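Example 3.2
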Amino acid sequence: MTDSQRVVFWRSRWLGVAFIAAILAVWEIASASGMVPSLSFPRVSAILVTWWEILRSGELLRELLPSLLRMFGGYLVGAALGVLIGLLMGSLRTVYYLLEPITEVLRPIPSPAYIPIVILFLGIDDEMKIFMIAFASFFPVLLNTYSGVRAVDPVQVQTARTFGVKGRKLLWQIVLPSAAPFIFTGMRISLAVALIVMVISEMVAASNGIGYFILAAQRGFKIQEMYAGVFTLAVVGYSFNRLFLLIENQVLAWHYGHTQQQRN
C-alpha cells in the first residue's frame, strides 16, 4: 500500500468498516476459545450461516416486510404532520402559543410509555403500531421545521414582500426552501426513531414482524436466529440512512453548492 493509499484509507469510511470487522473477529475468537459463553455469544460464523439459511428460506423476509410497511406508514404520516404543524407554528405566533405547551408536555415522555394507553383505544393490531410510529416520528420533524422557519433570514422575507410575494407564495418560495435543510435533518432523525419504535411495538404486541421474530427467538433459546434478526436491523437501518442521505443530497444540491461557494 502506497503512502497516498494509506492517507485515503485513514480518511475514508473504510476505516470504520475495518473497525467493525475487527470487532467481529475478536467476537469470533473469544467465542471459539471459550473466553465468553457460547450460549450468549455464539460464533459470528455460526450466526452468519443461520442468517443465510433463514434469508434463503424466505422466513426473514416474511417477517421483515410487514415491519417495513408499518414503519413507513407511520413515518410518512408523522413526518407530514410534523412539517405542516411546524410551518404553522413557525409562521403564526398564535398557533405557536397554542401548541407549544402541549408539545413540551408530550415530547419528553418516552414513546414506549404510551403503548399501554394506545392499546386500550386501538388494540394490538397494525393501527396501534402505525400510530405509535407516527407519534414518535412527529416531534423531531416538528421541532426542526419550526427551528428552520424561525431561522429564515428576515431580509429575504422583507425583500420578497416588497416585490409582492405574500401568503402561500411566500411560504412556498422563500420560507420552505430556507427551512428545508432543517426539515431534512428532522426527517433523518425520525427515520431512526421510527425503526426503534417499530421494533419495540412489535415486541410488546404482535404476532409477526422483525421485532416479534427477535423476541420469539430469544424466548425459544434460538440465540443464533436472535442475533441474525439484530444484524438484519443493523443492515436495514444503515441502508435506509445511506439512501436518505442520497435523496437529501439530490434535493438540497442547491443548498450544499451555495454553502460551498460561501466557504470558498
